[in-house]
């Protein structure tokens, strides 16, 4: 008698397993609604990159609870890329004397709807050939502000 003969060998179909994983990934995601849905301790909200036509991140030295887009003469209903935005933000620093007002110009903001999403091989080859890797530009000036800014 061969050792382990009574045990059944598990045969795994790699393609079927991949399909099952895709089905789990394709499950509908819920949208968090402020004031309605609660966030559990330790739970974090994730960005779904495919949701946005354009998604860029900027970072300053201290958190800014106040941020606003400044009106300009570039047009209110912009649809052409790259885009430009003028932004003002006020910080909430740990020490009052460290607070600042930030005046920023964000330019070369390109459409990023595929950021973080899987692309077809054909599409990724085309974007590599056409040089679609664009880098946004952030220009910033700041001035000291005698206190936190929250408006």
From TrEMBL:
Q: Give me the stretches of Acidic residues compositional bias.
A: 117-132
* Residue ranges of the region described as Disordered: 1-25, 113-151
Which GO BP terms, alphabetically? ribosome biogenesis
Residues annotated as domain Histone-binding protein RBBP4-like N-terminal? 43-109
Domain of life (superkingdom): Eukaryota
**InterPro entries recorded for this chain?**
Glutamate-rich_WD_repeat, Histone-bd_RBBP4-like_N, WD40/YVTN_repeat-like_dom_sf
Q: Does the keyword S-adenosyl-L-methionine apply?
A: no
* UniProt KW keywords: Repeat, WD repeat
Does this entry carry the keyword Repeat? yes
A cellular component term, taken from the record's GO annotations: nucleolus
Entry protein name: Histone-binding protein RBBP4-like N-terminal domain-containing protein
């Amino acid at each position: 008698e061969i050792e382990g003969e009574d045990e059944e060998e598990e045969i795994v179909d790699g393609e079927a397993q991949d399909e099952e994983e895709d089905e789990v990934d394709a499950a509908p995601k819920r949208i968090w609604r402020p004031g309605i849905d609660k966030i559990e301790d330790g739970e974090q909200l994730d960005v779904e990159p495919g949701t946005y036509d354009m998604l860029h991140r900027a970072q300053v030295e201290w958190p800014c609870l106040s941020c606003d887009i400044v009106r300009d003469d570039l047009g209110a209903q912009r649809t052409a890329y790259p885009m430009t935005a003028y932004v003002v933000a006020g910080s909430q620093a740990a020490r009052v004397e460290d607070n600042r007002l930030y005046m920023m110009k964000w330019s070369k903001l390109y459409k990023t709807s595929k950021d973080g999403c899987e692309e077809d091989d054909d599409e990724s080859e085309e974007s590599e050939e056409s040089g679609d890797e664009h880098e946004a530009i952030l220009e910033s000036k700041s001035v000291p502000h005698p206190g936190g800014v929250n408006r």
